[in-house]
Amino acid sequence: MLKKEMFQIVFEMRKITNSLSILSFLVLLLAVVSCKNEKKQKEEEKAKVSAIYGSVIAIGKVIPEDGWVQISSPVSAEIKEIRVKEGDEVEQGQVLMILKENSEELDVAQSQAQLESLKAAHQTNLSDLAKQDIILQELKSKYETSKALFAKNAETKEKVENDLSNLKQQEELISGLRSQIKANKASEKEQSILISKNKQSLQDYQITAIKKGVIAELNVQLGQTINGTEELGKIVDKDNIIIEAEVDELFADSVKIGQTVDINFVGKPTVIGKGKIVYVSPTLMNKSILFETANEAEDRRVRRIRIEPKKNPSLLINSKVECKVKL
After folding, report:
1. Can you give the residue ranges of the Multidrug resistance protein MdtA-like barrel-sandwich hybrid domain (predicted)?
2. Which residue of 103, 145, 188, 215 has the smallest Cβ count within 10 Å?
3. Tens of pLDDT along 54-74?
C-alpha cells in the first residue's frame, strides 16, 4: 500500500514539473513576440512621424572638410624652439618648431667656403687667361714678322723656329688654362648641388605647416626628443567644415543629394544652421560611435551622408548635431 502511494506522489510531481516547463516556454514565447511587435510598432510609428512632418532625423558630427592635418617631424631630433601654441592661426609653410641639428649647419658652412674658394680660383684663372691671350697675340705677331723676313732672306731660320716654338708653348699654356677653367666650372656646379643638399637636410630640422589652419592638440615640450612617426599636434581648417551624419536604414532610400537640412544641437530645438546634402553613401553600414550605447550601435544599420553647412560660427569642430533632412 505504501509503495502504491509513493508511486502516485512521484507521478503527480512529474505532472506539475511538465506543466511548469510548458508554462515557462509559453511565457518566454509571449515575451519574444511582444518585443518583436513592440519593435515593429515603434518602426511604424517612426515612419508615420516622418511622413507627417516630411523630414528625416540624422545624427551627425562637425568635422574639417579635408580632415585633420598631422604635425610631424621628418627626422629624429631634440626640440630646440616652439614658435606656436594651441589656437594660433598659421599659414602654409610657416615654421612651427626648430629642432636641434647635429652637424648639418657646419656642413653647409664648409660647403659654402669650398664653393667660395673654387670661385676665387676660377676668377684667377680667367685673369691669367686674359694675360696669356695678350702674350699669345704678341708671339703670333713676332712669329709672322720673323717668317716674313726669312722669306726675304733678312732673318735666320733658327730665329723663325725659335719664335714658332715660343708660340706653340704659349698656345699649350692657354689650352691648359681653358681646361682648368672648364674643370673649375664643373667643380662649382657639384659644390652648389652639395650645398643645396646640405641646406635641404638643414631644413629638415624645421617643422613647418603643410596647410593653412589653426593649431590643435599640440603635445610637445622644449627639450623633448621626437621621431619621424610621432604626432606632435594637428592643424585644422575651421573655416571649411562638413557634417558627417547617419540616417537609420528605415529611411535610407529617402535621402538624396541636394536635399536641404536644418541643423540643431542634440537635445535642443533651436535651429542653429542650414545646409544641404552633398554626398550619400551607396551602402549601409553599422552605426558609429556617434551612438553612445553599444546595443544601439549594433541594433540597426545606417546610411552615411555628408552635409555642407552654410557659414555659421556656432558650428564648432567635433560638435554633435541633429540634422533634420527635408524630404
Report:
1. 69-236
2. 103
3. 889 999 999 998 888 999 988
